[in-house]
Design goal:
Helices cover 52% and strands 12% of the residues. The protein has a five-stranded mixed β-sheet with strand order 1-5-4-2-3. The protein has one domain: 3-Layer(aba) Sandwich (Glutaredoxin). By secondary structure, the chain is an alpha+beta fold.
Length: 209
């Protein structure tokens, strides 16, 4: 599949608009092949950290892109945990997910950190209180979600994905467990989306041959 993708680079101008995707410059193969959830679909994973201003600025681009995804595409977010001080926000993400409040609080958490500047993303106790207050949940229930057995397994898996991808920062997009790009590599948030679409289209073409 990778060989076919490289051959299809001649279609850059029509597939990626203004951006000029260059292998190992704007996007690259993942360090290792990463298993996807559903082999019948093309999976796009965004690795992010709530404390990252670039991830916050990337939100409008990724939200617009995922609004009307084709049926053959799946999208999910995974918190990156390459450093210990990123763990509180990774726990916050998975806790909100397990408590079924993620959809309502995801954007609010970003805003609390970057717009309102009322939350320190490295402070786990503050994150627990913030979720309890904004989700109108008992603090002990949120604390239990932060310290659950399943939480540790999810954090371990997230850490392994970051390393297997060969990512060096966030936001990073992993396409079908085989390629990655980022706003830094691509030269901006919209460029990262354009390159992701370019890779997706090449995967489609490769699968049809």
């Amino acid at each position: 599949m990778k060989k076919l993708l490289f051959i299809c680079l001649i279609a850059i101008s029509t597939l990626a608009g203004a951006v000029d995707p260059q292998l190992n410059v704007n996007f690259k193969p993942t360090r290792e092949k990463i298993d996807t959830t559903d082999n019948s679909k093309i999976e796009v994973v965004e690795m992010f950290w709530y404390g990252c201003i670039h991830c916050f600025q990337f939100e409008p681009h990724i939200n617009k892109w995922k609004k009307d995804l084709p049926k053959d595409i799946t999208f999910k977010r995974i918190p990156a945990v390459p450093r210990k001080d990123w763990l509180p926000m990774a726990r916050a993400f998975y806790a909100m997910e397990s408590l079924n409040v993620l959809d309502g609080l995801h954007e609010k958490l970003f805003n609390a950190i970057h717009t309102d500047k009322t939350l320190n993303p490295t402070d786990e106790s503050a994150a627990i209180k913030w979720i309890a207050t904004n989700a109108k949940l008992d603090t002990k229930k949120v604390e239990a979600a932060f310290k659950s057995f399943s939480m540790e397994a999810k954090l371990k898996k997230a850490n392994q994905m970051f390393r297997s991808a060969g990512a060096t920062g966030v936001p990073t997009l992993i396409i079908n467990g085989s390629y990655l790009t980022s706003s830094t590599m691509a030269g901006g948030g919209q460029n990262a989306i354009d390159i992701t679409n370019f890779i997706i289209e090449n995967i489609r073409q490769s699968s049809n041959k």
